[in-house]
Amino acid sequence: MQGDAAPPSTARSAESELEDLRRAIDSIDDRLLDLVVERTRVVEKIGAAKRKVDDGVQPVFVRPGREMSILRRLMGRLTGPFPKAVVVRMWREMFAGTLTVQNPLTVAVFMPSRGAGYLEIARDQYGAYTRMEPMATPGTVVRAVAEGEATVGVLPLPMLEEGQKWWTMLVSDMVGTPCVISRLPLCGTGAGRGDGAEALAIGRMAQEPTGNDRTLLVVETDPELSRVGLRTLVEAAGLPVQELVDTDEPPSGDRLHLLELNDYVAPDDKRVSQLSVDAQVTRAVTIGGYAVPFTAEELA
Fold it and tell me: Do the beta carbons of residue 244 and residue 262 sit within 8 Å?
């Protein structure tokens, strides 16, 4: 048995190699932290520059389109076995931390009961240590964002025949009305991260095109217009319909339909205003949209 033991010189050599590798890790960690500090200094300068540009107006610090563009670029650079979803999570925390440096961030979260999943999704997106305000109804979330009590709101996905039609509250010309800015989670559902729930985030900032986007369009129509007829009208206007998401059908009066478009469509897009030419359409308005989250294939 004694003959099976490694020679003392070999064991010392292996231990020495381990110590060298650990010192290399310590050096890398130091450089990573130095880069975080350097990045934070640049973010502070960006915040100061925004305040100069938007003199007298509250600057927009949350930019979901810009953040998603950064993440897509990083995914394209990443090589080796390190999990892509973990890189996204690391940078989400980085974004949350630097946003706090620029301006305090508060997130209003729909939380009808414990375990609903939306609080976990919100933390996944906006940071584990960001201030979260649970709220019992979607309407209170929308109002908190509209009145400036929260920077961002997290709400359930609209679905046909189900739930409160909170998205109808975004169809307004009032200053400060929120719009949809993100779809969550960015890396798909998973155990301990909402447990299958998905959500939309709203905020008082404009949607930014990223090259792979969805836009939410609300069309108010005569109650006699069918969903098939509506889709035909929207597609005839040149708007690419992904799906009819939801419909609000009051006991009397016009219907409100929520459609998802497979592209970025600006609020002043002529194709949207063209819809109102039809006698069956009262009005059409975009209520924001989102950069398409990562697919399982993109994260593989």
Answer: no
- Count CB atoms within 10 A of the CB of residue 59: 16
**What is the distance of C-alpha 170 from the center of its chain?**
17
pLDDT band for position 61 (50/70/90)?
Answer: confident
Where on the phi/psi map is residue 150: left (φ > 0), alpha (ψ -120 to 50), or beta?
Answer: beta
Q: What is the pLDDT of residues 79-138, one digit of tens each?
A: 999 999 999 999 999 999 998 888 889 999 999 877 778 999 999 999 999 999 999 999
Three-state secondary structure along the chain? Answer: CHHHCCCHHHHHHHHHHHHHHHHHHHHHHHHHHHHHHHHHHHHHHHHHHHHHHCCCCCCCCCCHHHHHHHHHHHHHHCCCCCCHHHHHHHHHHHHHHHHHHHCCCEEEEECCCCCCCHHHHHHHHHCCCCEEEEECCHHHHHHHHHCCCCCEEEEECCECCECCCHHHHHCCCCCCCCEEEEEECCCCCCCCCCCCCCEEEEECCCCCCCCCEEEEEEEEECCCCCHHHHHHHHHHCCCCEEEEEEEECCCCCCEEEEEEECCCCCCCCHHHHHHCCCCCEEEEEEEEEEECCCCHHHHC
